[in-house]
Amino acid sequence: MSGAGRRAVVIGAGVAGLATAALLAREGYDVEVVEQQLHVGGRAATWQHEGFTFDLGPSWYLMPEVFDHFFRLCGTSAEDELDLVRLDPAYRVLFEPREGEGGAPAVDVRTGRAHEAFEALEPGSSARLDAYLRSSREAYDLALRHFLYTTFASPRGLVGRDVVRRAPRLARLLGTSLERFVAARFADDRARQVLGYPAVFLGTSPDRAPSLYHLMSHADLEAGVLYPRGGFGAVVDALVRTATAAGVRVRTGTRVTGVATVPERGRRGVRARVVGVDLADGERLAADVVVGAGDLHDLETRILPPELATYPERWWDSRDPGFGTVLVHLGVRGRLPALAHHTLAFTRDWHANFDAIFGAGRRVPDPASFYVCTPSRTDPGVAPDDHETLFLLVPVPADPTIGAGGIAGSGDAAVEAVADAAIATLADWAQVPDLASRVVVRRTVGPADFARDLSSWSGSALGPAHTLRQSAFFRGRNASRRVAGLLYAGGSTVPGIGLPMCLISAELVVKRLRGDTSTGPLPVPARLREVAA
Fold first, then answer.
1. Engineering a disulfide at 444: which of 68, 262, 405, 531 sits with its beta carbon 3.0 to 4.6 angstroms away?
2. For residue 110, which of 16, 26, 224, 211 has the smallest C-alpha distance?
3. Rounded to whole angstroms, how far apart are CA atoms 470 and 496?
4. Mind listing the pLDDT tens digit for each residue in 291-305?
C-alpha cells in the first residue's frame, strides 16, 4: 500500500523507531516520531561528561551487511555514513585465575584466525572448529534468507525447498540447546564459554538458547567485528540524518498515553483501527498508521485498553524478559593495556552464574561474569589524553527492585555494590590494583533505570530472551490482531534483539504495509542503487 497522503506516527526514537520512520517517509508517509526521553537513541544513546564519551548500550557492530542494506534503502551507504574500523583482535577473553596464578589467563580472538585461540585452549581442536564454523555459516545464511527478513504473515517462506530440505537439521538445532551443541564438540570449558557466550547477546544463557543460534559465531569469528569511530552515537546520528533528510519530524520529551482508535470490524478479530495517538499534554496526533517502536509490553498493557491488546498481561506472565544489567561507565586516568576494545571476563562456575540470573531464586551472581568495552583503545577521541573510557556490563536478573544507578556512587546500594565488585574483579584479573583510585568519572545504571527511562518490561536490558518459544515465528508478531494500522518494531518483536535486528524490524513494518510476504530483504530500487553507488 502506498503511503502517499497518509500520516504515520512512530512511538520511540531508538534505533528501530528512527529506522522505521526513515523507511516510511520513503514510502510516501508523512512521519512524526515521538520520544518520551529528552534525547534520541533509546538504548543506543550517548552520554558525554568531562571529555569522556560513553555509549549507554549497544557496543558491538556485527552483521555489517544488514546496516549497509538499510542505508542503501535510504539512498546512501554505511561506508558514506560511518567511519568503520575493523577490530583486531575482535575481542579478548579473561578467564578467572586459579589459585597461584598472577592475573587472569587471556586469549585474543582474531577474525579469521580463531584457530589460534582455540588451539591455545584445546590443542587439536582446529578440525572441529572448522566444522563448527561451516555449520555456523550455513545456519547464518539460512537465517538471512528465510527467517530474519520475514514477518511470518504467510507460511510459504517456511515450506520452500531450501527449508524443507534442511528441516531435519533445523529440528535438531531448535531442539538442542546451544550449550549441549557446543559441549558435544569441545571438551575445554573455556572454549565452550567462548562459543556459548553469544547467547548473552540474545538475552539468555547457553542452556536456554536453541543451538540454531550458533550462527552468531560466524558473525564474530569469521565476518568480524567493526567499530563506528565516535561510538554508537555515530550510528544514531546517521539514522537521524537519513530520517530527517526524508522529511521525518522528531519530537522528544513527549509521552504517549494512548492509541486513539475508532471501532471497525474486520477479519481475524480486528475490532478497531487507529486514528492517532494521545499525548500526556492532551494533544492528539492524527495518524493512519501507528508504529510502536518502544517496549511492546508497555504498549500492549499500558497504552492500549485491555480489550484491544494482542498481548495482554496474562500472555507476558509465561514469557521470559531476558536478563537485566548493571552498567558501569568509568573514566579512568592512565592507560589499561590489559584490556582490548572488547574484553569478556568469565568466571569458572559458568552454570552458577546463569542459574543465579535465570533460576527460581533469582539473585545477583557473585562472582559475576561481565563484559568490558574500552573504545578508547581504538578511538582516542572518546577520552581525554592519557585516559581510558570504560563500559562494564554485568548481567543480573531482570528485576527493577535491584535499583537504579547514579553518578559518583549515588545509585541504590545494590547497584553500586555490583559495580564495586566488578571494578575489584577487573582490577585483580587485569592486574591493575589501583584501578578504583584512578576512576575520575563514574556512572551506574540499574534495572530500575531501564524500567523508568525505557519503559522496559521487568527492567530487561535487551528485550524478551531468545528462547525457543520466543524465537522466529514464536516471537511476538509485528502487527496488532485487534487494531488495524497498529504495527510494532524493535527488539520486542520479530526478528529480535540487537541493532541489526532492529534495522530489519523497520523493513518488516514496510513489508506489512505493502502486503509483502517474501523472506528476503527488500530490493533496493534502481534509482537508490545509483545514488548509493
1. 405
2. 224
3. 9
4. 999 999 999 999 999
